[in-house]
């Protein structure tokens, strides 16, 4: 009698588990089949016209066609990307508000006294989209190689300068790591954008500058600027003859900068997985790959868990750099 009772309970439990699994499976299928049922917002926390904005619009159009729902790009610049990211962190967790972000997402909160959100707690990773390189270039009057530039800079501390996109930007952080490794005391000159850096570099107002491969290639042909090294663990396709910092013996600058897609934490996993899979499909299109290549970007997608690991590792590494140099935005 007791054995029969245990057997009945066993089958009842198994049936309940099966029913639960079936319900969860149906829930996932329902979420994936009904999403999206209305327009989706894609927030870019930077001004229009830059590579991030171009990527967002290149992604939004084909994704909207795939979903048969508009994907509307909104630019929300401010405080190193914090304003736009905060809007997504505080949105309803339903997958209808997305964020296209750079590594500054996990860097900038370390530079302000009271960050309004925690990027890895309040946001959910969807997919990495692209990686990019940063180029350290010199003006035409400087030596032609990085070892020669370092030797010159060490012989005359605080005589030579470098320009970046601004205090606390990825370019500034990379250069902090480089200057320490090289033992060179250089003067940091922050700018608002790449064009003025290139102009002052060509004009000789600054000794060196951090630029995109596309800008460097454009001016290096004429000899107006000299590319010295690129960040990342591989050479930039646009500048195959320019060595990486790692090749030249400088560690800590080999992590390629990423551009990736996030949404609000708490968004159903099924929806995140659907967006990730659809984004991967869209980014695999030859025309998008070529458009990104023309910007000096390399399409490299990844699924949510893999991208989360990358973002977490970057947060730990750059958080340490920011604390070491006490880089502040407030």
Features:
single chain, 330 residues, alpha/beta, D-Maltodextrin-Binding Protein, domain 2, 2 domains, six-stranded mixed beta sheet, five-stranded mixed beta sheet, 11 strands
Beta strands, count:
11
Low-confidence stretches: 5-9
Oligomer: single chain
**What is the CATH architecture assignment of the largest domain?**
3-Layer(aba) Sandwich
CATH top level of the largest domain?
A: Alpha Beta
Q: What is the share of helical residues? A: 40-55%
H and E order? HEHEHEHHEEHEHEHEHEEHHEH
Label the overall shape: globular
Which fold name is given in CATH as the topology of the largest domain? Answer: D-Maltodextrin-Binding Protein, domain 2
Mean residue pLDDT: 91
Report on the biggest sheet: 6 strands, mixed
Trace the largest sheet across and list its strands.
2-1-3-10-4-11
Distance between the termini: 74 Å
Q: What's the total helix number?
A: 12
Count of discrete domains? 2
Relevant CATH superfamily of the largest domain: Bordetella uptake gene, domain 1
Q: Which structural class matches the secondary elements? A: alpha/beta
Task: Report the radius of gyration as a whole number of Å.
Answer: 24 Å
Strand content: 15-25%
